[in-house]
TrEMBL record:
Described purpose of this protein according to its UniProt entry: Phosphorylase is an important allosteric enzyme in carbohydrate metabolism. Enzymes from different sources differ in their regulatory mechanisms and in their natural substrates. However, all known phosphorylases share catalytic and structural properties.
Gene3D superfamilies: Glycogen Phosphorylase B
Lineage: Bacteria, Bacillati, Actinomycetota, Actinomycetes, Kitasatosporales
Record-stated family: Belongs to the glycogen phosphorylase family.
Protein name: glycogen phosphorylase
Stretches assigned to the DUF3417 domain: 13-120
Assigned EC number: 2.4.1.1
Reaction(s) catalysed (UniProt annotation): [(1->4)-alpha-D-glucosyl](n) + phosphate = [(1->4)-alpha-D-glucosyl](n-1) + alpha-D-glucose 1-phosphate
InterPro entries: Agluc_phsphrylas, Glyco_trans_35, Glycogen/Maltodextrin_Phosph, Glycogen_phosphorylase_DUF3417, Pyridoxal_P_attach_site
Keyword terms of this UniProt record: Allosteric enzyme, Carbohydrate metabolism, Glycosyltransferase, Pyridoxal phosphate, Transferase
Name of a matching Pfam family: DUF3417
PANTHER family (UniProt xref): GLYCOGEN PHOSPHORYLASE (PTHR42655)
Cofactor(s) listed: pyridoxal 5'-phosphate
Superkingdom of origin: Bacteria
Amino acid sequence: MKAIRRFTVRPVLPEPLRPLSDLARNLRWSWHAETRDLFQSVDPEQWAASGGDPVRLLGSVPPRRLAELAEDRRFLRRLQSVADDLHDYVSGERWYQSQPGELPAAVAYFSPEFGITAALPQYSGGLGILAGDHLKAASDLGVPLIGVGLLYRHGYFRQSLSRDGWQQEHYPVLDPNELPVALLREEDGAPAQVSLALPGGKQLHARIWLAQVGRVPLLMLDSDVEENDLGERGVTDRLYGGGSEHRLLQEMLLGIGGVRAVRTYCRLTGHAAPEVFHTNEGHAGFLGLERIAELCAGEGLDFDAALESVRAGTVFTTHTPVPAGIDRFDRELVAHHFGPDAELPGIDVEHVLRLGMETYPGGEPNLFNMAVMGLRLGQRANGVSLLHGQVSREMFSGLWPGFDADEVPITSVTNGVHAPTWVAPEVFRLGARQIGAQRTEDALTVGASDRWDAVGEIPDQDIWELRRNLREQLVVEVRQRLRASWRQRGAGSAELGWIDGVLDPDVLTIGFARRVPSYKRLTLMLRDRDRLMDLLLHPERPIQIVVAGKAHPADDGGKRLVQELVRFADDPRVRHRIVFLPDYGMAMAQKLYPGCDIWLNNPLRPLEACGTSGMKAALNGCLNLSVLDGWWDEWFQPDFGWAIPTADGTGTDPDHRDDIEAAALYDLLEQRVTPRFYERGQGGLPDRWIEMVRQTLTLLGPKVLAGRMVREYVERLYTPAAHAHRAMDPDAARELAGWKARVRSAWQSVTVDHVETSVTTATAELGTTLGLRVRVGLGDLSPEDVDVQALSGRVDEEDRITDALTVPLKPVGGPDTEGRWVYEGPLSLDRTGPFGYTVRILPSHRLLASGAELGLVAVPSEEAVEAAGVLMR
């Protein structure tokens, strides 16, 4: 019979064991080996049955066992040691506290998903895992971050396969009382809540659940509360589920409700108020509107001044390299949810709409674009690899008309991964044996060095034994998961004897695991099945492949790719050499990355913004075999991996491109990769392979750390944003907003009227300095409002300047009788070959983060160009 109501009955821990509760509720256990070892020793069988979840473990341990442990002095000493270590970790000084300068008092980090641990399934893929790693690294470094997200009652879907290999989705209900979270409560004990106004006088209420991620609090909003109607209760039902209005309400709750949750948390706990708000992708962009509303109500600012104040302290990170990956809503749907009868009634709906409308060439004028709003609300923005920064500047260049893409104010901070989460314990122990546990931990968390030279002293035999041990563990894991998968598909035990021979711990093992959108090309390896079979079944140099990945529930194309791969892997001829494991998630990943020898990645370049799975593999000594996209484009060296050549010319037919790149992949495996793995040196070891593993750890290891990434955010984005926030007091905000309005209205009168140089010949000698004289019209503006610049450098065949050098020009005297100003400056001919220059005028103000911020630029007219002399060639 089905229960009519469900309760979570928690154990009463004996007094000596009370610290276990604190340890279970702080998610540091998910990356701290000593804490996990302690919980495992409580009850090894129940620990395995709980999936390594301390909260579930403590709910299932028999009282008799707890009583035994309460009398076990050895266990109590271990418990006290681990509890003291956690106390020191959360209260002691770390990297952030030792930095000079005025760093932000606090940073609020908003993301639609967070992958902290499999025990808190609130993630779908790379964006969430990255956000979780960001929080963990911030905790290790002592960065005063507050994470903000949603608590989804179904999380992301669980994946299984039908008998014919079709993906099936399941949505188990998550009970927050069984998760490592706690309700944030008011001083009287009542659950803290935030509310949003909905059209028609309705309200959307949400409670705030708190997950403690080391030192970092993660606030998660949950709309499944009794005060809501059935429709509103379902707002936080599923991650990336539902239609447009459902998604819009999720994103309003995340952004607007999230700011209110942060204010509530700071009020109740005394945590410093954030000076910087970091928007991780566009989903949380509405947070800027709530902060504008706060300033309008609290400081008496008008919308434009409040906007300047909010922009100063906002960082926006974009993760998508294609417009289709961005959430966009119908203009009327957004208008319906804001204004007098809905949320933020004090803000004119037109102001809201203007922030997200695609008012640029090629944009859709009736669509509200969340990334566009994020860029307009953030004074600082970044992509997540060098290549992705470049792609983002080109993709969003319409917001900064008149500027070359490389001047669009979007920088890049390349993603990193949280080493203590993703490095296998065996790899950590090998490092600790070499340099000590504390130095190894510091190297993996702070990541302040460029090289890990100590890896060079580890004997070849130790590296090779480590790699085989990890491969053997993966084989065991794969067989267990494969057997469970086939049982779910309806197979009986008598059919599954072959699984005992699946994979071989001495065969070159390739991993491929990720989401399954079409651009990641899950089935590229199947392009020539005969060649793949030859590779899998080679008599001397075989390979074996472990594949995992989820297609979005609404993506039938992605599901067909999964089915195609599964059907190939079901073939009795090769099923011992290639497997598909359903339900890819963090628990599987933590076994998969260390156990593979090669991590394969073959997206369509440049559609991989960063891609971090190969980083996690690299930290375990796995070599990358990848298209030069995302982070691999930036850091690839032949010393530690292989680059799959791409055929990404614009005229290449997609099918032909896949054929070319698949053939290149097979060639690499046949001619370069497998020979190196199987060839043995004089000592019977694959010396050249081991050297590549060593180089991967030595040179790539320090680069791919989330500690390095978070330090870059602090130094390059958070700290400048905090300084800009402090400078933008109400008076400064009003001044800047008024100045921008004046400049915009006057800009049409700003002109470059005449340009001349002291040399008019078509050739000149290297090292020559020319005198440049420019006559400009500033209309109602003054020289204090603008920068007049000369840009010079080598030119291409279309006379476009590359690698431009910018030199400021200075006004000479006052305006002439026509109100024109003369500017002069030097022009150095510092490069040989085709050389050119131009002149431009930009708005200039002390509170601007970039000269391109307003998207305004004046350049010479054709008449002025004719007088400027010719290009130097």
